[in-house]
Model the fold of this input.
Amino acid sequence: MTEAEIAAVLQSRLGAPVKIAVKRRQGHLHVLLGRSAEVQLDYPHLTDQVQAELKALALSGLEQVTVYGRELGRAEYEWEQARSLLNPTLAMPDTTISLAEKSDLLLEDLTVVAPNPVNQRSNPQPEPMDRTDTGSRFSLVWLGGALLAAGIGLAFLILAFL
Done:
């Protein structure tokens, strides 16, 4: 979407008596709201509206918007506020998601690297899972069942030949 298209969408959706100019610089969008001398604006409310409309447009690569307000013909701004357009959870650099418990064998080799101090250890290698307890119990149960089945089969064979 071009800057002119973004400005036209904002102009139609805001419904305020302002002239809107838009400039995009990488992930940052600058929106200038120009008002006539006779009009007083609720800039905080308009900034909320601009942020909501831009989030609804979901423009790719757009992370932040700064809304400026000024009277037409003047150089100085009477309003300036920057807002994030990212999801608050995604905007936080230290956000981590716990993916696995120690007993989850499907994710045992997955290593999650995050800048969270809680996850920082002196040894960056993933902890090996201890399978000795679970594996040995499972093996003994399986072995016992196999021996029982073999014993029952042998008993039937002996009874069949007698």
Observations:
- Residues 132-161 form the longest helix (30 residues).
- The chain has two domains: 3-91, 132-162.
- Strands lie at 18-25, 28-35, 64-71, 79-84.
- The chain is about 40% helix and 20% strand.
